[in-house]
Amino acid sequence: MLNKYMKTSLAKQFSLLTATIILAFTCLIASLLIYQNKLTTEFEKVNSELEEKQDTVYELDYAFNLAISEMRALFAYGSLDDSYKATYLENVMLQKDIVKDKIQVLNGMSLEEDGRLFLENTNEFYEYYFENLVPKSIDLFEQGKLEEVSKIATTGENASAKIRDFQSSLQDYSTGLEEKVETNFYSLQTNTLYSQIAFAIALFLLIVGMVIFTRMMLVKIGKPLRKLTIAAGEIAEGESVLFTDTTNRQDELGLLSIAFEKMTKSIQDKEQDLNAQNEELLAQQDELQAQQAELEEALETTQNRELDLKRRNDLVKGIANSLDKQEVLSSIVKTMCEVIDADKGIVVMLDKSLDHASFGISKLGKEQFLTHLQSGLIVRLQETKKPYSVQRESSEAEMAFHTTKSYCYDLYLPVLSGSGKIEAVLMYSRFSRPFTEIEIMEYEALTKQVAISLDKIKMYEHSERERVLVQDILDTIKEGIQLVDSKGSVIQINKKLCDMVDCHSQSFIDSSYETWIEKLSASVKNKLEFKAFFQRVLVEGKGEEASFIYHQEEPLKRVVQVYCEPLRRDGEKVGTVIVHRDITKEYEVDLMKSEFVSTVSHELRTPLASVLGFTELMLNKELKPDRQKKYLTTIYQEAKRLTALINDFLDVQRMEAGKQTYDKKYDDILPLLTNIVETTQINTPNHQITLDVATHNTMVLGDRDKIGQVFNNLISNAIKYSPDGGQVEINVFEEGSNLKIEVKDEGLGIPPDAIDKLFTKFYRVDNSDRRRIGGTGLGLAIVKEIMKAHEGEIDVQSKIKEGSTFTVSFPLVIGMYDSSRDTEQKDGNEKEVNVIIVEDDSSLANLLKTELEESHFNVKTFNEGETALKAIKQEHPDAIVLDIMLKEKGIDGWEIIRQLKEIEELKSIPIFISSALDEKEKGLALGANEYLVKPYQPSKLSKLILQTLLKKDWSGQILVPSKSYDE
User: Fold this and answer.
1) Where does residue 419 rank: exposed (0-12), middle (13-18), buried (19+ CB within 10 A)?
2) Which of 914, 847, 901, 843 is nearest to 869 (CA)?
3) How far is it, in rounded angstroms, from Cα 677 to Cα 729?
4) How big is the CA angle at 865 (ends 863 and 869), to the nearest 5 degrees?
5) Average pLDDT of the chain to the nearest whole number
6) Average pLDDT over residues 463-491
7) Where is 882: in which H helix or E strand?
8) Three-state SS at 615
9) What are the residues facing 252 on neighbouring strands?
10) Do residues 860 and 815 make contact, with C-beta atoms less than 8 angstroms apart?
11) Which residues are paired to 811 by β-bridges?
């Protein structure tokens, strides 16, 4: 029954094979696991017993050793103190109990021969040691017979030897237990390995059997399948097939063979019917092919019409969907080429721009067409305003590889505006066939669409130019302009308003009243009043309010005045022009003016009150001389304070008017700084002022008094704004090509938002601590102007409550030379700077000589050219100041320069031209180093000479003035 059931299905056969393999594999795995589990259980049992014996033996060993040690301690130290004796005896008894317990534990275990022998030895030793030896020794010890105790251990009973024998026996048994543990472990490993090898062999045999049975089943299935495949091939070739043994199978292959046999018989029966039907279909096919040819011809005509309509539609779309002229022209010429079936074409606007586009035409061809627009065949087009076609022979370039004569057909089309004027010219060429009259009329109609598109672009360009012009005009206005319609929606804004609101113009235009009022008011401080103003003006129509001032916080803090003006057209209001004017500077100036008046009133009245008060006392009372001197000193100090205040006002006015003069000379600022520090330190006992100089190059070109005013202001500010005292550091150092001086304090510090305004006239930090200090707010403004006049800079760094650092920098002068040569200067290897002045004006010559000598130069003057040239050749000066026009007969300045430049040893001498003639280019071309046009400040000449000479090295020596700068 089972055999019949399995034969009816291949799937059942494979399922049975698979189940058999899985069952066999499962049994194999289970056997391996059961066997290995048994091995592990036996190993753990034996190993546990051995480990328990080891632990017991170890504890016995430890207890015996500890008991022996306690006995020895008793004999060694028990006589010293009874408490020690009792403790040692108690410990011995405790270890005795432990040993007895462990012997009982060992006795209850399953022991082998060696274990039983060890147990007997242990019992014997226990009785000998604890029952006999220990009590006996303790009695002798308590009787004080220490020598007899010693004899028991060494002679007679010889207890030491017995103890060693027992310990040796215990050690041997412990070692034997360890060997049994290792033997048990090796046994487990060996049995496990054998079981794994047996499993591998069984698994291999199982796999081999599975392969064999699978091969047999595949052969049983594959053979009938090959026969069915051969039969299918024979049927496909029209041969008859005879099925034999495959139909006797009861599985799926048998059913497949039966169905295949029935299908073969059915195909053979219907083959004859199909052949008859095929002949009938062939006849119908011939008839359908004839009809298909007619339909294809009609379809081709329809497709040509559709393509033509599509091209015309593309032309209309191309010229209607864009307002970019060049894009439209390109679309016209390309689409018209497709509509006309032309090979190339061009379109040109006949205005001043001559905008054009082409298709299939070279750059040279376009230039030729544009050059002859007003001549040739274009003239005919302009006169008749009608399209026409021309036949001509093809040029060599157009013929390509053709050698026979061929013709080309050109079509000229005018594009007429609504007024009848020709706006553009279209020209197309094709080689396939000539243009017919019907085609020309059709193409002429298309040019009307082109004309409409060009007119639309022209109107758009005009309006766009007007719009851009208006927008450019609005963008040049410094106020923010905003145009809204009658409903409040934004029509137009300018760039200034975008900058004020920090937005993009495209996002602002066409926004409703509610949208833009929210955007504007978002950064406004007094936003409620701001919204109320626009509500009254734009919504309620109350135009009596001329303007409104609001304070903006972002993107910058501004004060803005806004006013609205109605925009009318034909007497009717169509919108409103809103102007936002930035009045921040005016607002700050007004605040500073008010504050300045208050400050000046306080600063002037305070010293005046002292002057008037002490003067009145001296006039109305008889005072002692010392009291008079004290009052006069106070009046003098307050008068100096008034004078300094007035001088600050005057200095600021002169600097703003450009009338401040500076007496600049080369000077060492170190003595100046030292003097200011010493003077200031006397008057400020609460501050410690230090001066640290990290450079020898402390020379600057400047006005000594003005530079002193700079340092006086900075140091006095450092002291003033450090009301609690502290350190004031002054550091002098080089950085790059600058000499820098830092003034650092530990005072109040400066808020970050005030640093940008710190050097503004009358500005004072808005802080109650600083208000109590006082001041006009002019000192730092004067310092900045003085540093600017000296080509220097001032910088500040500060932290609140930590102090401020002001840094001024001057261009280096003496510092330009190599410091490695200082030793040579100290050794006296210096060279005096000799300057020859050639000037026929004696007054000017003496003025220049005085100025140069004050700057420590050795100077000689000459008023005649030949004499001066002779002296130059003899003395070889370091620099020459030369006038061009000399009164005496002889050579002029130009000739002196030419001759000097021809002499090798003299051509490198720096020449500074000083002349009333403005011929600077000529002078510099001839080789002059600088050209000064009279009148000029003499100090400028000394500065130029020194700066030029400091860069030169003459014979390995440093050029320095003939006198020391310390003089």
Assistant:
1) exposed
2) 901
3) 10
4) 115
5) 79
6) 80
7) strand 879-882
8) helix
9) none
10) no
11) 738
- 3-class SS of residue 432: coil
HEC profile of 171-236? HHHHHHHHHHHHHHHHHHHHHHHHHHHHHHHHHHHHHHHHHHHHHHHHHHHHHHHHHHHHHHHHHH
Each residue's pLDDT tens digit, 166-212: 888 888 888 888 888 888 888 888 888 888 888 888 888 888 888 88
For residue 828, name the pLDDT band (cuts at 50, 70, 90). Answer: very low
For residue 174, what are the CA distances in angstroms to 117, 127, 185?
13, 21, 17
Q: What is the pLDDT of residues 413-438, one digit of tens each?
A: 888 887 778 888 888 898 878 888 88
- 931-959 in b/e form (b: 16+ CB < 10 A) is bbeeeeebbebbbbbbebbbeeeeeeebb
Query: Is the peptide bond prior to 877 cis by the omega test (within 30 degrees of 0)?
Result: no
pLDDT digit string, tens, across residues 887-910: 665 788 888 888 888 888 888 899
Query: Cα 563 to the chain's mean position, in Å?
Result: 43
User: Residues 573, 579, 585, CA angle at the centre, nearest 5°?
Assistant: 165
Give CA–CA dist 953/668, Å, rounded: 23
Tokens encoding 41: 């259980």
| Cα separation, 60 vs 520, whole angstroms | 98
Overall pTM > 0.90: no
CA-to-CA distance for 86 and 138, rounded, in angstroms?
12
Sequence-distant (6+) residues with CB within 8 A of 825 are 958, 960
Q: How far apart are CA 313 and CA 538, in angstroms?
A: 49
Cβ proximity of 374 and 362 under 8 Å: no
Q: Let me know: does 657 contact 695? Beta carbons within 8 Å.
A: no
Contacts of 655 (CB under 8 A, 6+ apart): 782, 785, 789
Q: What is the 3-state secondary structure (H, E, C) of 734-788?
A: EECCEEEEEEECCCCCCCHHHCCCCCCCCCCCCCHHHHCCCCCCCHHHHHHHHHH
Domains of the chain and any CATH numbers = 4-208 (1.20.120), 322-461 (3.30.450.40), 477-582 (3.30.450.20), 662-816 (3.30.565.10), 829-959 (3.40.50.2300)
Instruction: Estimate the share of the chain in helix, then strand, then coil, as percent rounded to the nearest 5.
Output: 60, 15, 25
SS3 for 945?
helix
pLDDT tens track for 17-57: 788 888 888 888 888 888 888 888 888 888 888 888 888 88
Lowest mean pLDDT among 122-131, 742-751, 822-831: 822-831
**Tens of pLDDT along 257-307?**
777 777 777 776 777 777 778 878 888 888 888 878 888 877 777 776 666
DSSP notation for 885-926: --SSSS--HHHHHHHHHHSTTTTTS-EEEEESS--HHHHHHH
Tokens of 141: 């010890």
Residues 6+ apart with CB under 8 A from 936: 914
> What is the spatial distance between Cα 703 and Cα 810, in angstroms, rounded to a whole number?
12
H helix runs in 356-508, sequence order: 363-371, 377-384, 396-399, 437-476, 495-501, 505-508
Name the residue type at position 388: Y
Buried b (16+ CB within 10 A) or exposed e, 92-113: beebbebbeebbeebeeeeeee
